[in-house]
Amino acid sequence: MRTAICRSLSRRALLSPETVASMPLLATGSVRGIQTSKADPLSKEYKYWNREESKHGEYAYLLEMSPWSVKREARIVSLSDRNDTANDALHKGKLPYSSQLLGVGETLDDVEHLADQKPNILFVSPSCPRACKVLPKVLEAFPAIEWVHVRSAGLDFLNPEELQTDLSKNIPFTNAKGQFSSSLAEYTFLSCSYFAKDLPRLMRQKQAQNWEKYDVEELRGKTLGVVGYGDIGRATAKLANAYGMRVIALRRHPEISANDPLCDKVLGTGKAALNELMAESDYVVCSAPSTVSTRGMVNEDAFAAAKEGMVFINLGRGPVVDEKAMINALKSGQLKGAALDVFAEEPLPKGHDLWGLDNVLISPHNMDQVCVHLNAIYVCMYRWDLTVGIRSNDHLTRLLVTLF
User: Fold this and answer.
1) Is 346 a catalytic residue?
2) CA distances in angstroms from 125 to 5, 32, 105, 321, listed in the order given
3) pTM for the full model?
4) For 231, which DSSP code?
5) Residue 30: predicted pLDDT
6) CA distances (Å), origin 319, targets 171, 202, 267, 323
7) For residue range 16-32, what is the model confidence (pLDDT) as tens digits?
């Protein structure tokens, strides 16, 4: 989806190649200087940020020490559910000098009265119902908007086609690529260890005050398959290397990672490649986005091809996986277990089969909800000058960097 929007912008010559290349919403990144022009001619110029490289609070300090650097006021409108606690730092926190949150709402009616205050930043959260329909209307009502930031890395809740008219206004759109990678990689190895060391058994024995020894598995020497080798997938591969695991990566453009030192094998997409990965892997982590081509991708055939006793981990998007087929594989023993942070329907309904399976670890789509995650993405904005492409007028960037 990012690539499609990028190409659309480039064809229309609305933004310079440099500006397009620097926008996280549009960027794919490069791996340790590996040339990626075969996949996308612009990608060799792409830059995106990862919070592992950021120091918390460094830009807050810069703004506090030089308030005269503020060029104009930042006026923010948030398209979000007011009760979304993930946005508390913006909605309830203390904002920096010359910055204000004008209002929060889920529809144009909720925020239309703010038009006279000329908001120039639009913050969009996945908790905004029907955001794909609301966003174009809000942009039409607020012609002073200079920047739209989407809080999530995933963009499946937005429809690019709906935004084509608004993109033509030369408004930079950014997302949270690189924001959640560390936390989700850590969750992957919590999940691997949960099954390798049989944590449920430990908890039962503790409850029963039962001192009974048993054999456990090592992760060292096992194979980790990564379905969707983007920033999250690569962060996971880093930890897998530290554990001494073999890594098989699956991605749309395998040539991008052909020389990646973290991967032992890189496969392209397609049924045969996915089945090969499933058959060779002891653990599979799915971090693929939900798109037209990926929905239902991990299906009955993929689970039938899985190595017996494999553990499946999904932290990308629920619709990528055929849940019925996964449940059958869990019940039959083809899968040893599953760790799931995302689901086809969220919240997971009461009475759903997954709640009753002892070999399933369930988390409520919160394994990326770390207390500093909003600070992280706003540092990205500052470092790559992603507001309106004018370096001297970067307070919009500095503002959001310092919020969290």
Assistant:
1) yes
2) 19, 31, 10, 24
3) 0.75
4) H
5) 31
6) 30, 32, 22, 8
7) 333 333 333 333 333 33
Helix, strand or coil, per DSSP, at residue 214: coil
Backbone phi, then psi, for 45, in 5-degree steps? -100, -5
Active-site hit among 64, 161, 218, 346: 346
C-alpha span between 82 and 158 (Å, rounded): 19
| Whether the predicted pLDDT of 389 surpasses 70 | no
Percentage above 70 pLDDT, the chain: 72
DSSP 107: S
CA separation, residue 58 to residues 54, 99, 132, 174, 404 (Å): 8, 18, 34, 21, 11
The pLDDT value given to residue 118:
94
Place of tokens 């392209």: 268
CB distance 80 to 91 below 8 Å: yes
Amino acid, single-letter form, for residue 344: A
Show the tokens assigned to 118.
């000329």
Map residue 261 onto helix, strand or coil. coil
Q: What is the pLDDT of residues 128-142, one digit of tens each?
A: 988 888 998 999 999
Q: Which two tokens stand for residue 156?
A: 């499946």
Helix ranges (H only) for 112-251 are 131-141, 160-167, 181-196, 199-207, 231-243
Catalytic residue check, 201: no
Strand partners, 225: 248, 284
- Buried-exposed string 280-293: b where 16+ CB fall within 10 A, e elsewhere: bbbbbbbbbbbbee
In whole angstroms, what is the distance from residue 235 CA to residue 184 CA?
Answer: 8
DSSP one-letter string for 5-52: HHHHHHHHT-S-HHHHHH-TTT----STT---TTT-TTGGG-----GG
Annotated catalytic residue, options 75, 91, 317, 373: 317
* Residue 227 near residue 288, CB atoms below 8 Å: yes
pLDDT at residue 348 tops 50: yes
Q: Which of 148, 184, 174 is nearest to 51 (CA)?
A: 184
HSE value, Cβ hemisphere, 13 Å, CA-based, for 393: 10
| Residue 143 CB-half CA count within 13 A | 0
Q: Among the options 91, 234, 365, 398, which is catalytic? A: 365
- Which residue type, as a one-letter code, is found at position 154? G
Tokens 């060391």 -> residue: 197
Cα Dmax for the chain: 70
Please work out, in degrees rounded to the nearest 5, the angle formed at the alpha carbon of residue 241 by the alpha carbons of 235 and 242: 95
